[in-house]
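[audit] Reproducing an earlier prediction to check determinism. Same input, same settings, fresh worker. If the tokens differ from the archived copy the diff job will pick it up downstream; this log only records the rerun itself.
[audit] input (263 residues):
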Amino acid sequence: MILPTLSAFKIAAALICSAWITSLISAVFGMAGGLILMGILNSILTVSLAMIAHGVIQCVANGTRAILIRQSIVWGPLTTYCVGFLIGVLVSFAVSFQPDKSLVGISLGCVAFLPRLMDRLKLALNFAKPSHSLTCGILMSVSQLTAGAAGPVLDAFFAQTSMSKYQIVATKAASQTISHLAKVCYFWIAIGFKGESSSPLELTFLLTLLLACLASIVGTHHGKALLDRFSESAFRKWYRVILEVVGSLILISSIVELLVSKS
């Protein structure tokens, strides 16, 4: 069974509620929700199924968000990002390198502080620049296929851009839709090759996933309403704060996981 029998309904309810609240958070700031959801899914599903469920829910949530404010998508950098993402996917398949999950987490946590370091060095990561969006795409694909969630990488490239709050949220949503779709395909193939006993087509799993997707759409609409109330200055302030808080949590938990595994 994918969901423990005695707690199936409780877990399904928790998953659906989690999909709603994390989609709401992401709709407001364009970040953090996916990582929180990944943590919840990892605790109740196998790794591959967690990746698939996370990818499907995030595809729906980000896709809905991108459609709602599609007029704000900045297509030039997004196109370059897609080229970089494809390069990263090809490299990942060619090398077949699977780094330690805790080390990937430590790297992701450190990336969240890149904008602060760049400020001190009088430099800036700017997704609007072709070379930066290309690099971002490569790093995102490699991180996404190894860690499952690579939000801090993408967030760091938007923290110092001159885009408006709507352009940031819309362009990130479009890029995340692409990356999560790739992740779903990658891990669906992985399940097929490994022959896992818990099929992703199990009725309980599919029904829960469907309801979670619907909840993510509702959460995205609620979050969009909250985004409209944020001023540009408040948005940028809280964007940086949330980026570093999430990065710190990932960094601490990954270090603890690494130390426990070595002990």
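[audit] rerun output stored. Observation attached for the diff report: The radius of gyration is 18 Å.
[audit] end
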